[in-house]
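# nightly structure sweep
# worker-07 picked up a monomer target from the shared queue
# config: single-sequence mode, recycle default, output format = structure tokens
# input follows
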Amino acid sequence: MHAWVELELPEGQTARLYAGQIIGRTSAAALRLDLPEVSEAHALVSLRGERLWLLALRRRFQVRQAAQDAAPLSAGLAIELVPGFEVRVAAVHLPADVLGLEGPGLPPQALLGTCGLVFDPHPRLVAGTPPQAGAHFWATGGQWRARVAGQLHTLEAGAPLEVGGQTFQAVNVPLGHAGNA
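# output follows
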């Protein structure tokens, strides 16, 4: 149920990056590049709707000799992260389903980024971390997390979650039906 991209590096190695992982110089980066031109947090792989994207975080990158802040990822795409360092997209995997949430008054909705469950006047998922949300959701390390009333939860399909006195459930949502949160 995880979206990923496989990048071919200049020396021929490959690196698999999942949605939400970073390319950069920091030791916390999923793809660590020990180059002075690469920022600590240089770029982010992100699932937006039904596509994986590469998003520039500190410096722009080049695609087809044009500076970009964001680029949809597809097999064969060449990306020059910094001058003289190009990676090529070897493969992109998009799962059939992504994790979502459903419950009283909330039809199944995909969790496609950091979002909150608000009740105004009915339950709905909104992007970001709104302070009025009864729960916040985010992906980290290949799993989904939720914070409800200060408590952290790991979400898996089928797991119930009590929010505001109501029971919601983590569910699989077909990626083709996944709206943006």
